[in-house]
Design a protein that fits this description.
The chain has nine helices and two strands. With 285 residues, the chain is mainly alpha-helical. The radius of gyration is 20 Å and the shape is globular.
Length: 285
């Protein structure tokens, strides 16, 4: 019997890549399905949803890093160092600052207005502050964690950045009140967060940006991805136009579309401490 030739190296590489990414996606899906069965009976909707996102991201990354890289969850770019702390604060400031800019832009241009403020709900503020942090970390682990970093290392930055951003946007298309523009903006946001991951070689910069944006909008009374959260007593009423975003919030506004190139510019120009995510080591700028 004539022996069959061995597959070419590139075929083995493609098969290995498909298997690893496929395992990661499978673990995310299974975790996403099973965790609500455990969490929802013991937590309210928002906490259960945020912990589900966090759990799915953490579990899937921890398992595939252990199996395929003989590493740990920290290798995804979560190691806690001086560079990590600086990136977290840098990202948080950028996220908060951009949220303030867009809300003020909507108010100054007459596209939105504040209602008379009510009392601050301190328990709600504490609750939202913690829940949104878990949600931001979980989403970054899912969309900028193992699969994103592996694909970047194997097929390149530009072949990975946009497709993963599109996945990020499509996943948010099912949110309450989502529009075509909200999906487009979320795709661009996904590309921005992916670019922040590549610049910092870790996850704390995009986590800070993601968390800062998600945290400041409810504090200013704006809807966040279609969700209304009463936290500080402020209520931002935006007009039902594509410029203001309507019920979905600023993420569905053309004002954000115009703001995003400036955020890309800032992430590109600012000094970013370099971390040591395992699969991004040695990546060229």
């Amino acid at each position: 019997m004539t022996p069959q030739p061995k597959p070419a190296d590139w075929q083995q590489e493609i098969l290995s890549l498909v298997l690893r990414v496929g395992m990661f996606v499978l673990l995310v899906i299974v975790s996403w399905m099973l965790l609500p069965l455990i969490l929802y009976p013991i937590a309210d909707y928002y906490a259960g949803a945020a912990l589900t996102v966090f759990g799915a991201g953490a579990i899937s990354n921890a398992i595939v890093y252990r199996i395929y890289e003989r590493g740990s969850l920290m290798d995804a770019g979560l190691e806690w160092t001086n560079a990590s702390r600086r990136n977290l604060m840098l990202g948080f400031g950028l996220g908060v600052g951009s949220g303030i800019v867009i809300v003020l832009s909507l108010v100054v241009t007459g596209l939105a207005h504040f209602d008379a403020p009510g009392p601050v709900s301190w328990p709600s503020l504490a609750f939202v502050t913690i829940v949104l942090l878990f949600g931001a970390v979980g989403e970054e682990l899912m969309f900028r964690g193992y699969a994103f970093q592996l694909l970047t290392a194997k097929v390149g930055k530009y072949a990975t950045l946009l497709p993963m951003a599109v996945v990020f946007g499509v996943v948010h298309a099912g949110n309450v009140g989502a529009t075509q523009l909200s999906v487009v903006n979320t795709v661009i946001w996904g590309a921005l967060l992916g670019y922040a991951t590549l610049r910092s070689r870790g996850l704390w910069l995009p986590i800070g940006m993601h968390y800062g944006w998600n945290w400041i909008l409810p504090l200013l009374g704006a809807n966040l991805s279609g969700f209304k959260m009463g936290v500080t007593g402020l209520r931002l009423n935006a007009s039902e136009t594509s410029w203001a975003g309507g019920a979905y919030g600023p993420e569905a506004s053309l004002v954000l579309t115009l703001l995003l190139p400036g955020l890309f510019y800032l992430v590109n120009k600012m000094t970013v401490p370099v971390q040591q995510a395992l699969l991004l080591r040695g990546l060229e700028d």
